[in-house]
Design goal:
about 200 residues; Glycoprotein, Type 4 Pilin; Dna Ligase, domain 1; 2 domains; 5 helices; 8 strands; globular
Length: about 200
């Protein structure tokens, strides 16, 4: 994990702020984080904001590479609600049925091996998120995704390649770069409800 600590209180602030940001944006208003919050999250980190309705994905956008967290939270929250190409933009009247989730990411680290067949043994479902790159293609899956679907490490690699628009077994090719990272996940238990740290 990184050399900073994300407390439960931090997670509550991040998730509540994400909801406020989206609510204000959908009403045509601008939401500014207050100065103490900006200062608290002035370090650089990757972040993803995920929206769910009744356990089904409604939007997920973020930044895998570290950037100032206070700024990235605003951009990721708005993008998750309005710019995920898989979904129509969220409307204001949907918000009472949506749960918000924020995942703070450690910096991606490339997994290096001379034998790609060893890759499944070098990652762990329930701990790692994955990012795959090959040429202009890239794809990322957060740590919670394989845990939710019950995938093996090989299936996790296959599906990350698929997310990148590549053949599922592209991770076996030496020209494919595979990166891992960890995530600190906070989620509303119900829309606008209690917020808790998630363990996979």
């Amino acid at each position: 994990m990184p050399d900073y600590s994300i407390t439960d209180e931090d997670g509550i602030i991040l998730v509540r702020s994400a909801r406020k940001i989206v609510t204000k944006f959908l009403k045509g208003e601008k939401y500014q984080l207050d100065e103490p919050t900006k200062k608290r999250f002035s370090f650089d980190s990757g972040i993803f904001v995920t929206l769910n309705v009744s356990g089904e994905l409604r939007g997920c956008i973020g930044f895998p590479l570290p950037r100032r967290l206070s700024d990235a939270l605003v951009d990721a929250a708005i993008a998750a609600a309005t710019e995920d190409p898989r979904f129509l933009p969220v409307s204001a009247d949907e918000l009472d049925g949506i749960t918000f989730e924020v995942t703070v990411l450690t910096p991606p680290s490339q997994i290096r091996t001379d034998d790609p067949a060893l890759l499944p043994g070098m990652i762990k479902v329930g701990r790692d998120g994955l990012m795959v790159k090959q040429g202009a293609h890239s794809g990322l899956l957060l740590p919670q995704v394989p845990a939710e679907y019950g995938w093996s490490e090989k299936e996790f690699l296959d599906n990350t390649c698929h997310k990148a628009g590549l053949p599922r077994d592209c991770w076996k090719e030496k020209r494919t770069q595979v990166f891992s990272f960890e995530g600190i996940i906070f989620r509303e238990e119900t829309p606008n409800g209690e917020i808790s740290r998630q363990t996979l």
